[in-house]
Amino acid sequence: QTILCLPRSFEYSQKNAVLVPVAVLGVGGMLVYWLRSRHKIKTIEMGDGWWGSGERPLKGKEDESIRPFKIETSDKEIEDLHCRLEQARYTPPLEGAAFHYGFNSSYLQKVVAYWRNQFDWRKQVEVLNKYPHFQTTIEGIDIHFIHVKPSYVPHGRAVQPLLMVHGWPGSFYEFYKIIPLLTEPARHDLNEGDVVFEVICPSIPGYGFSEAPHQKGFDTIATARIFHKLMNRLGFKEYYLQGGDWGSRIITNMAQMLPQSVKGLHLNFVFVSRQGLRRMISVMLGAYVPWLVGLTREDVRRTYPFIQKNIYELLRESGYLHIQATKPDTAGCGLNDSPVGLAAYILEKFSTWTDKSFLHKDDGGLESKYSLDELLTNVMIYWVTSSIVSSMRFYKENISKDPGLTADARVGVDVPTGIAAFPQELVHTPRAWAKEIFKNIITYSYMPRGGHFAAFEEPKLLAQDIMRFVRKVEQM
Fold first, then answer.
1. Residue 233, φ and ψ in degrees, nearest 5
2. Which contacts (CB < 8 Å, 24+ apart) does range 367-371 have?
3. How far apart are CA 27 and CA 142, in angstroms?
4. Residue 8 CB: number of other CB atoms within 10 A?
5. The pLDDT of residue 41 is above 80
6. Which residues contact 146 (CB under 8 A, 6 or more apart)?
7. Does the predicted TM-score (pTM) go above 0.85?
8. Which is nearest to 111 in space by CA: 370, 387, 337, 357?
9. What positions carry a catalytic annotation?
């Protein structure tokens, strides 16, 4: 019987000799695939789009030429503005209201008087035209941008391309004070030896001199794709990105879409939409044992009391958002027809978004940080282009969707990231919370002063932080 069993056991061992290595190889292969897939960078699909009027042409290639552009004005345009300013009606403010009810109409009359009698739009057009402007057609609409190169580059120094993207209610003009600091740092005592930029500032489609989309659905992901195409058309394969407000969301999407093209991402506003149990625990424990949840003393100072700073103050400053995310065209009709209404609507944001305490000032503190020429130039960009309605629609296209279902909701950011946290920003995002999305934070700076419009208000502080970030990335 033992002898009879020998052939069977020999046959069984032969099968094992084949099956075991195959099983090991199979399990090993699955393990390797799992480990590689874990480390594979997830990206947003780039896709394509058409935002021009009517159907996309079936034949013919899109005109990819880059055309010089110049801002112009006319007597007719200025006369029409003056006529509307002269016919404005005002409602007297409540006594002691300051900016608690919105833009104080007593101060508004002073702003309008300056606008009508002293503001020189022709002179400001010359200021706007001091940098080279261009337009190019992408996905059926004309994209406006300025492209500023350094006038002198020391031998052996590399020039870094930097795309800077504005938000609402700003414009490309926000960057006019920071551009010379980045392109000619030596002239502005910022010559730390190694970082010089050429700067590209596009107007978001529907803002300023970029054509508004003619189709529904134009969101930050579509904008990100268009700006990648713009940079590619300009001949850049790799570049740095910088932005705040909507610009922050757009360039974050750019990093999620084509991480291989983005050398680094610098933000002065952080969108972190992910909530959940972990965040709730962090908020609850952060007030008592911040070190346990990765918060610093400065995070605590800027974040708590949580209900006041993250709910009450945010609700007070975001009424516009609900209107623009639901029925932008309705409110936009009046703003597009009245320059006084437009100025009040826009400039109110430059008050309390710059410093929350300006709420208590009769003049909104506006002229303590900016000149009326600067503020009104930004308003004029919206006025002469009739772009306030299309700029407001951007909220509808982005916020009317469930944030958990958007293409970028579950995609992290793996490119090197720098964050400049300004103390008067609408909300503070601690590094510990930012890390949930941004996996490779190289620099995180608690800025000493400044608010939402960082490049406009504190250009030198922002320029220094951008340079520090890029310097570290280049040394990696």
1. -65, -30
2. 369/457, 370/456, 370/457
3. 54
4. 9
5. no
6. 131, 132, 133, 134, 172, 199, 200, 201
7. yes
8. 370
9. 245, 395, 452
Q: Tens digit of pLDDT for each residue in 268-283?
A: 999 877 677 888 888 8
Distance CA(471)–CA(194), nearest Å, equals 8
**Exposure string (b/e) for 250-262, b if CB count within 10 Å is 16 or more?**
bbbbbbbbbbebb
- Name the token pair of 198: 């050429």
Are the C-beta atoms of 168 and 199 separated by less than 8 Å? Answer: no
What whole-number distance in Å separates Cα of residue 61 and Cα of residue 436? Answer: 41
Q: How far apart are CA 89 and CA 57, in angstroms?
A: 47
Please check whether residue 229 is in contact with residue 67, taking contact to mean a CB–CB distance below 8 angstroms: no
Long-range Cβ contact pairs of 96-101 (< 8 A, separation 24 or more): 98/359, 98/360, 98/361, 98/362, 98/364, 99/348, 99/351, 99/352, 99/358, 99/359, 99/360, 99/361, 99/362, 99/364, 100/359, 100/360
| pLDDT per position as a tens digit, 356-402 | 999 999 999 999 999 999 999 999 999 999 999 999 999 999 997 76
Antiparallel, parallel or unpaired: β 133-138 and 141-148: antiparallel
Query: What does the CA dihedral 199, 205, 206, 212 come to, rounded to 10 degrees?
Result: 140
Kindly give the interhelix angle for 339-352 and 75-86, rounded to the nearest 10 degrees: 80
- 119: which 2 tokens? 């503001």
For helices 105-117 and 75-86, give the axis angle rounded to 10 degrees.
Answer: 150
φ, ψ of residue 18 in degrees (nearest 5): -95, -45
Residues with Cβ within 8 Å of residue 167, at least 6 apart in sequence: 243, 244, 245, 246, 247, 248, 269
Q: Give the full edge-to-edge strand order of the sheet including 239-243.
A: 66-69, 133-138, 141-148, 196-202, 159-165, 239-243, 262-267, 417-421, 441-446
